[in-house]
Amino acid sequence: MSTADAPTIGLAYDDDGSGPPLVFLHGGWLSAESWDPQRERFGEEYRIVTPDLRGHGRTGPSEARRYSIGLLTEDLDALLSELEVDEAVICGLSLGSMVAQSYAARHPERVRGLLLAGAVQTFPPVSIPGPMKRLLTPLPMLASSLSFTGSRTTFRSLLSTIRPLNGGPWLAHDPEVRAVALETVDRMPEDEFKKVFAALYRFRPPELDGLSVPARVVYGEHEVSPVKRQSADLARALGCDVYEIRDAAHLVNRDNPEAFDEVLSGLLDEVEG
């Protein structure tokens, strides 16, 4: 593990292997470790870069009082510039998919391919008019919950609000994958949890209709229907196919890594071809 001396913040990251760069961006409140199956699968053929985003994992807290997807995108751009990665295939899950969308919109010349998993255009993934969304913001209630119960219990409460949308466990289909994710969330400081949530909630999707790169959109069979709908919308905007992975939920790359890797392999073949 190395640490980039980036202008905005020093991001902890892993940079392994050689070959065409392949960048993986983890989901909210998780860490770069969530991409370990893909690092193992593609590490012999590609240069794999897996950062811990601001506020997450080994990178840890920052002094910024407010986070945004734009800020996380600037962090990524600074890191890739530091590593002299001029162009790469970018894979993002959930929060990472938002950063990947933003990065592709801002720096299309630096993106060779794009894979968006568990991807959304808004958080929550339902259409709420801007003024109404600001009025109904859950941030004060979230801050109160974090103060009294901590990150893990607050995250479980968020999961309980999603359960009715699909009738079962949503985060992960595999109980072991779910347990590891909850342990990772539990290590995040309450203030960082709140700043990450706010960045998700305030995200405004970029315009991707003009982006012309090989792309794939992926979600799990047990993903909630609003995420599936927004993923389909993203696929139409990108002019690409959308893939539903069986025996998988939101953490699709961990629930069924073999099927996920097959989709990614197809994208990489198209890029290299």
UniProtKB/TrEMBL annotation:
Origin species: Halalkalicoccus paucihalophilus
GO molecular function: aminopeptidase activity
Domain AB hydrolase-1, residue spans: 22-261
Matches recorded under InterPro entries: AB_hydrolase_1, AB_hydrolase_fold, AB_hydrolase_sf, Epox_hydrolase-like
GO cellular component: membrane
Stated name of the protein: Proline iminopeptidase
Keywords: Aminopeptidase, Hydrolase, Protease
Transmembrane segments: none
Top-level taxonomic group: Archaea
EC top class named in words: hydrolase
EC number(s) reported in the record: 3.4.11.5
Gene3D superfamilies linked to this entry: alpha/beta hydrolase (3.40.50.1820)
